[in-house]
Amino acid sequence: MPMRSDQRAGDDRHQPSPGSAAAPRPGDPTSIRLYEDGRQVDPGGVHGLDEVLTYLGRRPGRMALVGYTDPGQEQIRGLGTTMGLHPLLIEDLLKGNQRPKLERYGDTLFMVVEPAFYLDDIEDVDVAEVHVLKRGNMIVMLVRPASHGMIWSGPDLDYRPGFLALGAEALLYGILDGVVDSVIPVARGVQTDLRQIERQVFSGDTAAPERIYRLGREMMDLQQAVAPMTDIVESLRAGFNRHDIAHELRTYLGDVADHVRRVGLQIDQIRELLTQILTVNATLTDQRRNDNMRTVSSWGAILLVPTLIGSIYGMNFANMPELNWRYGYPMALGLMAASAVVLYIVFKRRDWL
Known about the structure:
By secondary structure, the protein is α+β, with helices and mostly antiparallel strands. It has 9 helices and 9 strands. The protein has a domain at 285-349: Methane Monooxygenase Hydroxylase, Chain G, domain 1 (Up-down Bundle).
């Protein structure tokens, strides 16, 4: 997660306790963002979670966003011990594979979200898993990699200081908005592939159905990641009055809710288009199959009559009309050829050939 180093703090904004200015330790967070009065300050000398807590306790108006990238179990247990997390919450963090949700464990808010990625080269939609903990003016974000190894870099929190000064909820809503915004390029990539698939379908490419089924499955996974975010937003709204959330933050969360609705509609439209394309492909396939059957049947009928004539005159009975006739053999050949030509003309006019 990128840091901004162009803003400086006051004299004691982030002065660590003796010995805390050492290099980061193996279990320390991957990234730390410190804020004072809404402005990001240099986290120099603050490496561990305990040092972040010390920094936050020195003066009101301070805020921190702590990030862990693909944390190990020891890191999570250390985080749980330092923050005094509920055992059930620690268990969820250790297990992972959580669906998007919002839960409260005492004074700790626990949110699970799934940012999305689109791998255009293999036409695959992948989602990562992000656990977000909020307590007081500190937010801890644990980012787990997606199945293909992509790691979410985090949201763009380049907000004006006056907005960030409203509290850690501004960061929390920013994370939620960043996750929603990650779905937009995914939907755009899928729509591009849909246009290519449409051309494949009408050109008769047999690889089109496989692409349709694969994208349909991926869009279902994406919908499962986005749909629960509506419940997350509504749960956050339900706590507005109880937690005395500022009006500007309420308005911002309303904008996030609008983004969630629009993204959800996009996903529904894409899935509907996939269904329509699949129906069109099935119809065209049936039509091509019927055309092939007509063609095969026509040629079969054309060959049937000459074969029938040849079979009759090949039975070698002693008493058969034209058997000893001088022109019997040319007549049989001519009859076979004439019947084949007549049937060919009839089927050709009906566009069966």
